[in-house]
Amino acid sequence: MPEPLPVPLAAAVRTVTGRLGLDAGQVRPLRVHDAVTLLFPTDQVVLRLIPATGDAAARAGRAVRLTAWLVEQDYPSVRPAVEAPIEADGYIATVWKEILAGPAGTPVEVNTALGRLLHELHALSAAPVDLPTADPLARLRAALRLDADRGEPALTTEETAFLHDRTGELDERYATMSFPLGSGLIHNDAHPGNLLCDPNSRHGYLLTDWEGACLGPREMDVVLVGAPGSRFGDPDHERLAFTTGYGYDIADWPDHQALRDIRDLHSLAAYIRLGTRKPAALTELHRRIASLRDNDRTIQWAAV
Question: Where are the transmembrane segments (predicted)?
């Protein structure tokens, strides 16, 4: 049996299901992390909830409008089931059509599909959605401000100082980079965990989780899976499967490691936000920061 939802979240779910007439008795949690994803199998929709802030509402609204446009372009994306986000009891909710997924493929197959999906995304014309310009460490800076305002921060004083210094260094480095793939619409969080297996898609998968989509250098999408040196211990043949699917090897670009460092640092933001209420996230946060401070790439990171 799944664990019961936290009381504030359960209240938000009741409000949304009441407004939309969904069968709340059939709800099944799919993922409970920084964002919460719930399946309503009777209604064949998925509900995604994030804590309500002005930024969260803007991100959710852009995701719904952008994916509606992507579907019109015949791009393999998740489909919104409701045309605008719903604010309820401290959460922002978006509603998506359920995908009756088939079995997931091997990591090589998944990475190849991700490469193809991104290559196709990067070839699209400008979307008629007002998207922000990429600022790769903005969410980390926001998480540091949030932690500074807590009565009991997730970070130690030394960790906070290190992250502020490292953020400043990498912001300066990013400002000097030249990007051979050019700029345009990017997903901005493109990794295998954001693919849904769909046998009806021409690539076998759909791309989901569009809240961070923006305008920026295409290398931002390619570096997560396409660059060598993954801190998660991913083998190189899986990276090369992505490279084959996308049609470009980012390892040939001199700044690929610096951009990977930026993306690695960015990943800490979610763990800072979760750390005060999820012990496993706090443990992983401290491990990641220690490996960064010691420049120890032998320590493998793990997703919580």
Answer: none
